[in-house]
Design goal:
21 helices; binds FE2/S2 (inorganic) cluster; alpha/beta
């Protein structure tokens, strides 16, 4: 499609008419101080911003937007920034994930309903980028992404402190009596000492790196610290590039293909990325019409070892990863395992970016020959306890627990867990398997990050730091342990997890990818027939909660709302006046 035709289809339809509608569209924009000549048919670039003071990880994105605008103006476009709902992982209740799909609806309709030709998505904190990409995918304009970038490495008492990962450790140390409350409080400010996202390989850093590996951002988007001047430069260059993409009519679907997603998934494994990326990538694939299922994650990551020694799977932090070479160095190390000839929004192919990169610190970055860990990737487990699948991140697990058979200690929901976990009466030992129900998409609702259940107090005091844990919940990308997540179908939907009882024996065999409840078929049928449904789950009769519970898909399908799957193009059939 030519540029003329493209512009006619979008912004020129609003700004290029010399009639009543054109008057209305231009006149109100002129109240922002825009002169007449900027409505001359130049590409209009929306800057979709998840800035919010309630999302601290994205709190510098208004500043970043100014650099994107510089680049857009310089390239001959008209930049227009707009806000969308923002989800701060640290603050939103009951969980930011409940609102990912709502943000995606906001993004989708804000893009489609406004006269813009291309869009730059500014996101960072965990759910913001996936939500933006889901919404943008359903419209399919030329699209680029700039992430918040990670915080500087946390520092406390002369040591590095990793977001989230060290919080879980400190919290367990306090409970075990190994850390004072005063020291715990002092660590707070040292951990988060600059703007940006969690600087461990949490969900935000994971997704920023995956987005880069899928070719949707400029190189080093995933790792450059949020406060690094080069992120501003990258934003300026993104402003330049998005104008070119509009002129070339290179839509999101030109880049976000099955092959690009395969690259993203392989890089996800190599960086020890968050399990949350699995659910987000499936939702995005559903919007794009890319055929991707849960088993693909296991198949595509089978031969990928861990290449970055970074928390929670290792010891370093995002700043170290960036200085060691960032995602381009990983692309180089993965070499033939990637689809290297696919184009990226930067104008270079993945292979060209890899060729230009280097590993600057082989203490931080491993290689295929000398990986940080052999077991990486995402293991997809199946069995009578998870007929539609469950996942585990082996790089963050304890090797000796990757094959385990033991009795279950069952918690019916999060309140039950909080009430009984630390009770001296709890019948649990270090071999027990902790099972938590009621934390799936419908059950909580929103599938919170509670799958990494705390270790029971009496075991902590004995020095136990990991146990096999199974739930229909998610886990923070910053968390670690032998934690089996996303059990599908969830307990709330009468998945087999609902029927597990205290003392049942569960067998988990990671290498064989199996997860089974060792009871007879007759007993299974009996329990299913007698199941009355969760008694204590909160009920919601109205509003977004109801919409979500009525329509959310299970974890193995990306937990999108069923009516949002797919796309509706950028076309709007009727005028507003
Ligand atoms: Fe925002 Fe971790 S809380 S990225």
């Amino acid at each position: 499609m030519s540029n003329d035709k493209k512009n006619k289809a979008r912004s020129t339809e609003s700004f290029g008419k010399n009639d009543k509608d054109g008057f209305i569209h231009r006149s109100w924009m002129k109240s922002e101080g825009l002169p007449d000549h900027v409505f001359d048919g130049r590409p209009v670039i929306g800057i979709c911003n998840t800035w919010s003071e309630l999302t601290p990880c994205n709190s510098h994105l208004r500043d970043i937007a100014e650099y994107v605008k510089r680049g857009v103006w310089e390239a001959g476009g008209l930049p227009l920034e707009f806000p969308v709902m923002s989800t701060g992982e640290a603050l939103m209740r009951p969980t930011a994930m409940l609102f990912r799909n709502l943000v995606s609806m906001d993004v989708e309709e804000s893009i489609r309903g406004n006269p813009i030709d291309g869009v730059v998505l500014l996101g960072g904190c965990d759910k913001t980028t996936p939500a933006q990409l889901m919404g943008a995918a359903s419209v399919d304009l030329p699209t680029m992404i700039i992430s918040s970038g990670p915080m500087l490495n946390g520092k406390h008492c002369g040591a590095d402190v990793g977001s989230g990962t060290d919080v879980w450790k400190f919290s367990e140390d306090v409970r075990a009596g190994k850390m004072s409350m005063e020291e715990f409080m002092n660590a707070e400010a040292g951990m988060s000492r600059s703007t940006g996202t969690c600087m461990t390989m949490g969900s935000a850093s994971t997704f920023a790196c995956v987005v880069e590996a899928m070719g949707l951002s400029m190189p080093f988007n995933g790792t450059a610290p949020g406060v690094d001047a080069r992120r501003k430069t990258m934003s300026h260059l993104t402003g330049n590039r998005i104008v070119e993409l509009v002129k070339e009519d290179q839509k999101l679907s030109s880049y976000l293909t099955r092959e690009a997603m395969e690259n993203g998934i392989r890089v996800l494994a190599a960086i020890g990325g968050s399990t949350n990326a699995v659910i987000h990538l499936q939702a995005i694939a559903g919007r794009m019409g890319v055929n991707l299922n849960l088993d693909d994650f296991d198949i595509l990551t089978k031969d990928i070892p861990l290449l970055v020694d970074i928390q929670p799977s290792g010891k370093y932090l995002m700043e170290d990863f960036h200085y060691a070479g960032g995602v381009p160095a990983i692309l180089k190390s993965l070499g033939h395992l990637l689809n290297s000839d696919i184009e990226t929004v930067s104008g270079k192919t993945i292979g060209e970016i890899a060729d230009m990169s280097e590993v600057y610190n082989d203490d931080v970055l491993g290689s295929l020959e000398k990986p940080v860990k052999k077991n990486a990737g995402i293991w997809v487990l199946k069995g009578n306890l998870a007929p539609r699948g469950a996942i585990i991140k082996p790089s963050a697990a304890t090797e000796e627990l990757l094959v385990h058979e033991a009795k279950a200690v069952v918690f019916q929901n999060i309140e039950d867990l909080k009430a009984r976990l630390d009770s001296p009466e709890l019948d649990v030992d270090q071999n027990s398997i902790l099972v938590l129900k009621g934390c799936g998409p419908k059950g909580y609702p929103g599938m919170p990050e509670v799958g990494n259940m705390p270790i029971p107090q009496k075991l902590l005091e004995k020095g136990v730091r990991d146990m096999v844990r199974i739930s229909d919940a998610r886990m923070s990308g910053t968390a670690f342990g032998t934690v089996i997540l996303h059990v599908s179908p969830e307990a709330e939907s009468a998945g087999p997890l609902a029927f597990v009882e205290d003392g049942d024996v569960i067998r988990f065999d990671g290498p064989a990818r199996s997860l089974d409840l060792l009871i007879s078929e007759e007993e299974f049928v009996r329990r299913a027939a007698n199941w009355q449904g969760p008694e204590t789950a909160p009920k919601y009769g109205r509003g977004y909660y109801k919409l979500y519970i009525d329509h959310v898909l299970q974890a193995d399908e990306g937990a999108d709302l069923d009516f949002l799957v797919g796309k509706s193009s950028s076309e709007v059939k009727r005028e507003s006046h």
